[in-house]
């Protein structure tokens, strides 16, 4: 209700200013406990998620409002992407609402306040309940990006429910090359070694976020590496550099496209990874999810968890709780006793 009232004012502002205002508003919310585990609880990578609906990386880049988001009913939230050093990102404007398409194009470029600022906030919430993950990246001008990821894994592992390695943003030149088989193997091994050095006892699982713009050989190679290194999950997928038919005047902007036009591609890529992994690795479905029906489709296609971001631009942060309620009804309707039972059942 509140979002509907303030939405016209937010949309009168440029996209990035509107997002900052939304974060400040969330920070002012009264403290509420994260949701308790209920009928939708699901276990992934040794973690018990109270429900499968989370906030994708990019919404809360600097770990400013993780507890506020959990208090709204999300089962988990992923902060970041965070890099070792602060960086301004790409020149503005760099975030565009495609209202006619219910989509967003961004070329943010890993803008964030850096590891130390985020660590201060994460340390301050240490010991609080709720699943808060950290999405880690490399600085644009780094001479050794793999070393950057290792630094981030070492710093963030003690304060992160899981670590998500982001090599799939299209807005840092050359970053997606780290999805190549040799580079990805070296990267994952460096991250795991750094994580284990930081947390010897029960280290957080490592998730890997992949792009939707992959060829069949890439999918098979990534699946094999993820299985060989016993990753916690694959997050499928990031934004796309492809351009389906769009109606908005911003359709020609460069950057990653998310929201409704990504839904079909992201769902297909999830099915591809489900097939490539033989169902042996948990998947997180992201991209174009705006309703409980969309989330349920992704779960039936193989996702154990789902994440939202762009849909909240149009529907507000209360969308998570709405989808959770809808998922429970859909699960009962289709005769499943649990989310785990429904995963991959299409």
Describe the protein in words.
With 346 residues, the chain is of the alpha/beta class. The chain is built from twelve helices and 13 strands. The radius of gyration is 18 Å and the shape is globular. The mean pLDDT is 96.
The end-to-end distance, rounded to whole angstroms, is: 35 Å
- What's the alpha carbon Rg, rounded to whole Å? 18 Å
Largest sheet: 8 strands, parallel, barrel
| Strand arrangement across the biggest beta sheet | 3-4-7-8-9-10-12-13
Helix content: 25-40%
Given as residue ranges, the uncertain stretches (5+ residues, pLDDT < 50) are: none
Query: For the residues shown, what is the average pLDDT?
Result: 96
Strand content: 15-25%
- Put simply, the count of helices is 12
Element-level helix/strand string: HHEEEHEEEHEHEHEHEEHEHEHHH
SSE-based structural type: alpha/beta
Shape assignment: globular
Keywords:
346 residues; alpha/beta; eight-stranded parallel β-barrel
Give a quick rundown of the structure.
The chain has 346 residues and is α/β, with parallel strands linked by helices.
Write the SSE topology:
Layout: H1 2-12, H2 15-27, E1 42-44, E2 47-49, E3 53-55, H3 66-71, E4 76-82, E5 95-98, E6 103-106, H4 115-124, E7 132-136, H5 145-156, E8 163-166, H6 181-198, E9 206-210, H7 216-228, E10 233-236, E11 256-259, H8 263-277, E12 283-286, H9 292-300, E13 305-308, H10 310-315, H11 319-333, H12 339-342
Parallel strand pairs: 3-4, 3-13, 4-7, 7-8, 8-9, 9-10, 10-12, 12-13
Antiparallel strand pairs: 1-2, 5-6, 6-11
Helix pairs in contact: 1-2, 5-6, 7-8, 9-11
